[in-house]
Amino acid sequence: MVRITGWVITLLMLGGCTAPLQPVVPAPKPATSPAPEVVPYDRYLLINTRPDEAQRNPLHQIVNINLPLNLKLTVGDAFAWLLKQSGYSLCVDDHPTQFLAGKPLPLSQYRLGPMRLEEALKTLAGPGWLMQTDVLNREVCFHLNTSGTGDDHA
């Protein structure tokens, strides 16, 4: 019995030694991004090195407008207030935009937000107007919505 067990163990050991060897293939290295997305900054702080959405497109920043109720303001005043530190300006030589800017500001729009700047501008203009942006000159213009539905915002 001991002899048979010895033979079995020997055969198992030799069987494991005679298996054909496979060539060793090096593991592929993971692709590394050119710039890290999060890096250590200071002792216990990690920061994201990529710009956020509002930094890439200033019209996507979140705004909250609270204009004084005792002033008689126009839509143009509200546009100027919203665009003041955005880097954008209202078209100055555009007649439809100037026509819209001269309209009185509804009392319900003295307080807007928090919402994206782009949506706040469209809300101030109303459904009868389409907003067009010139990203090269950083200008915002408004033109009549001629589609007839009154619900389109460009």
Quick rundown:
This protein has helices at 2-17, 53-56, 75-83, 95-101, 117-125; strands at residues 38-41, 45-48, 62-66, 89-90, 111-116, 129-134, 139-144.
Main pleated-sheet profile = 3 strands, mixed
* Spatial ordering of strands, largest sheet: 4-7-6
Question: What is the H/E order?
Answer: HEEHEHEHEHEE
- Helical segment count: 5
Question: Tags for this entry?
Answer:
Integr_conj_element_PilL; Response regulator; two-stranded antiparallel ribbon; alpha+beta; 29% helix; three-stranded mixed beta sheet; 154 residues
Structure in words:
The chain has 154 residues and is of the alpha+beta class. The protein has a domain at 56-144. It has helices at residues 2-17, 53-56, 75-83, 95-101, 117-125, and strands at 38-41, 45-48, 62-66, 89-90, 111-116, 129-134, 139-144. Strand 6 and strand 7 (139-144) form a beta hairpin. The radius of gyration is 33 Å and the shape is rod-shaped. The model has no long low-confidence stretch (mean pLDDT 84).
Topology:
Blueprint: H1 2-17, E1 38-41, E2 45-48, H2 53-56, E3 62-66, H3 75-83, E4 89-90, H4 95-101, E5 111-116, H5 117-125, E6 129-134, E7 139-144
Parallel strand pairs: 4-7
Antiparallel strand pairs: 1-2, 3-5, 6-7
Helix pairs in contact: 3-5
